[in-house]
Amino acid sequence: MAGVSEADFLLAARGEAQELGGWVVAAIFDRQGQLGFALADGTIRIGDRTVEAHDGAILSACADAKGGFLTGGDDGKVQHTGPDGTVTTLQKFGSKWVDHVAAHDSGIRAASVGKVAHVLDASGKVLKALPHPSSVGGLAFDTKGKRLAASHYGGASLWFVAAKEDKPKVLEWKGSHHAIAFSPDGTHVVTAMQETALHGWRLADGQHMRMSGYPSKTHSIAFTSRGRWLATSGAESVVLWPFFGGGPMGKAPTELAGGDEVLCSAVACHPQHEVIAAGFGDGLVLMAEVSSGKVVPVAPPRGSAVTSLAWNATGTRLAFGTEGGFAGSVDLTKR
């Protein structure tokens, strides 16, 4: 951000930062507010503790329902790491990679291995193995935890977790689909594609929604808390698609915090307000308010792309991590 000194960034006055020495796969606040950073070298950093979670790389990570962190690795394991650093193996899938994991507050979990999405219960037992036509590109539970969405080549598949007969609702669209998200009210599913576009489906009638015009592939998508906006990376600004008033079809997107000719690489939406956290390819982190467009600088550029952003449950803390292993968090409580 031109004309902004390092002292103007929240990280200087309200934050703490550390060099972790490895690609940050995910910054995660667990259900109790404990912050952890999952790294590509197979470790999780919790405070000043380094935990060896995998015998190889961590490929995916999220907060787990029972507290702590859920991770999948190229060692074929689904691991749970507690806030105290205790590591428990929930499942082992041989030498196959666990590409994606997801967890819901109900205790249900999912892990994808190649073309199969496995549904796990609270103890880690595999309840179902759900096959797909190609490798799973992303996993997402709906807000209630009743449906699991998996993206893949040719579209996405929706599964009812508790169904006696596992038959998916297939959402078709040509191309390779990866990141996937449910709208908070469960009425829409959106995927980011290998090409520079997004695709969405309105579940009530199967209406297609194509969102294109990006200069680069979108890796990060997130709905605002009430589902009015879909925030996305992949452009020089944060691109927001309206999911109200008949949108997004026929509606122009809103753009926030652009102008420095650096691509946005990660987004995360505040859990209560229409505020977006965004990370960029040069390491810049900022927050932007949707209604006013006001931008607050969080962390200055350090030459390494932001790979992950995370809010705690109350929206009073924001954490980030980068490709180069620089990570930090800021305290946003009123003073």
Provide a compact summary of the structure.
The chain has 1 helix and 30 strands. The chain has one helix at residues 10-14, and strands at 15-19, 24-29, 35-39, 43-46, 49-52, 58-63, 69-73, 77-81, 87-92, 100-103, 109-113, 116-120, 126-131, 138-141, 147-160, 169-182, 188-193, 197-202, 207-212, 221-223, 229-232, 238-242, 254-256, 264-269, 275-280, 285-289, 295-299, 306-311, 317-322, 326-331.
Percent strand equals over 45%
Q: Helix tally? A: 1
Poorly predicted spans:
none
Number of strands: 30
CA distance, first residue to last residue:
25 Å
Name the features.
mainly beta, six-stranded antiparallel sheet, 30 strands, 1% helix, single chain, 1 helix, 335 residues, four-stranded antiparallel sheet
Characterization of the model:
By secondary structure, the chain is mainly β. The protein is 1% helix and 51% strand. It is built from 1 helix and 30 strands. It has one helix at residues 10-14, and strands at 15-19, 24-29, 35-39, 43-46, 49-52, 58-63, 69-73, 77-81, 87-92, 100-103, 109-113, 116-120, 126-131, 138-141, 147-160, 169-182, 188-193, 197-202, 207-212, 221-223, 229-232, 238-242, 254-256, 264-269, 275-280, 285-289, 295-299, 306-311, 317-322, 326-331. The strands form 7 sheets. A 6-stranded antiparallel beta sheet has the order 14-15-16-17-18-19, with no helix packed on it.
